[in-house]
Specification:
Layout: E1 8-9, H1 11-16, E2 19-20, E3 23-28, E4 31-37, H2 40-46, E5 53-57, E6 60-61, H3 62-69, H4 78-88, E7 97-104, E8 107-114, E9 116-117, H5 118-127, E10 133-137, E11 140-143, H6 151-160, E12 166-170, H7 177-187, E13 192-200, E14 208-215, E15 228-233, H8 240-249, E16 254-258, E17 268-273, E18 277-282, E19 284-288, E20 293-294, E21 298-299, E22 303-304, H9 309-313, H10 318-327
Parallel strand pairs: 11-12, 12-15, 15-16, 16-22
Antiparallel strand pairs: 1-18, 2-9, 3-4, 4-5, 5-6, 5-7, 7-8, 10-11, 13-14, 13-19, 17-18, 20-21
């Protein structure tokens, strides 16, 4: 199924998911590039660098891996499928080390790459963790929203941004559900219609019921922020993250910037199949108000920031730099005025 909520769980698959590299990959134009370093220390031991193109793994091409091991990988759209292929390229077995050939600018390197249990990688990344929120310029704040896990963090953030000139809200990931519940009343204190839910009607197979999805916030625990916002999204923005992004796009003085999102939101249903395999799919559809979200297409983006050679090779977050330039303007019109 072309659905990012459609995946299967079985013993070998789950075992493979336990192992992680010190870096993240990006699939662009059918090639794989290192676009993120999770742990600088471990990446240095692996001798891997940002921008390296992965050519072979254990002597086999990445195309071979796609055909032999990743044929079941899917996505709701091309952007999300590329994301899933990149995420699974080094998760086809449980080997702790693999031999990798990379292209680095005009040179070729043979590397021995280690894979780590999640806890080991998490311990290393926490050592080099950057601030989850910071003032980028006087009065302009950045919030790495998907990494927030504590109510005390939200309290500090909303106190800090209460008189901000603008806020960049990073949703290039998956937010904590409890944090979302606490956050939204402080960003959108008024009731609005979010869109429509589509549910299958089991009494009439092939038909669906359509129901309004309304937002009625409780009183905020934090100072309410009504100022300018730029929300960052990309292929990592999926499900709850898309719902939040679409909702924020209906907020005044708010614009969405980035790349196509996963195009998958709505409840997930599971069912078992023979062989001890568990399969899932999106069981509830959603149509965002003013086309703020469209199933399979993703959230509606006001300011597109497509992938480029510069952005995949740069150690700087170029999308964040563009957002900083955008929000520094004296006015910021929402993209949902019609």
């Amino acid at each position: 199924m072309e659905d990012n909520h459609s995946f299967y769980k079985e013993t070998d698959f789950l075992l493979n998911q336990r192992w992680h590299t010190s870096f993240g990959l990006l699939r662009w134009k059918r090639k794989y590039y290192v676009n993120k370093i999770h742990s600088p220390l471990l990446a240095k031991e692996d001798k891997i660098e940002l921008g390296d193109e992965i050519l072979t793994i254990n002597g086999l091409s990445t195309k071979h891996y796609e055909q032999r091991y990743l044929s079941a990988v899917n996505g709701s759209n091309r952007s999300s499928k590329n994301r899933e292929l990149a995420a699974q390229l080094f998760r086809t077995d449980t080997a702790k080390r693999v031999y990798v050939k990379v292209k680095r600018r005009k040179d070729f390197k043979e590397l021995l790459i280690k894979r780590y249990p999640y806890d080991t990688l998490l311990a290393q990344t926490s050592i080099t963790r950057t601030p989850l929120w910071k003032e980028m310029k006087p009065g302009i704040w950045y919030v790495d929203y998907c990494k927030l896990t504590k109510e005390t963090e939200l309290q500090q953030i909303f106190e800090a941004i209460s008189s901000a000139k603008g806020v960049i809200w990073d949703l290039r990931g998956y937010p904590d559900f409890d944090m979302v519940s606490l956050t939204m009343p402080a960003l959108m204190p008024d009731s609005i219609r979010l869109g429509f839910l589509l549910n299958a009607d089991l009494n009439f197979l092939g038909s669906f019921t359509k129901k309004e999805e309304l937002y009625s916030p409780i009183s905020s625990r934090f100072p309410v922020y009504k100022g300018k916002m730029v929300v960052l999204v990309n292929e990592q923005t999926q499900s709850l993250a898309e719902s939040v992004s679409a909702q924020l796009s209906l907020r005044k003085q708010t614009r969405l910037m980035g790349r196509q999102t996963a195009g998958t939101t709505g409840n997930v249903s599971y069912f078992p199949v023979p062989g001890g395999i568990k399969v899932s799919f999106t069981a509830v559809g959603f149509e965002g108000e003013k086309r703020s979200f469209v199933q399979k297409k993703g959230v509606r983006i006001d300011d597109l920031f497509p992938l480029s050679r510069e952005s995949r090779q740069s150690s700087e977050d170029l999308m964040l730099r563009a957002a900083l330039k955008k929000i520094a303007r004296s006015s910021l019109k929402s993209g949902r005025t019609n």
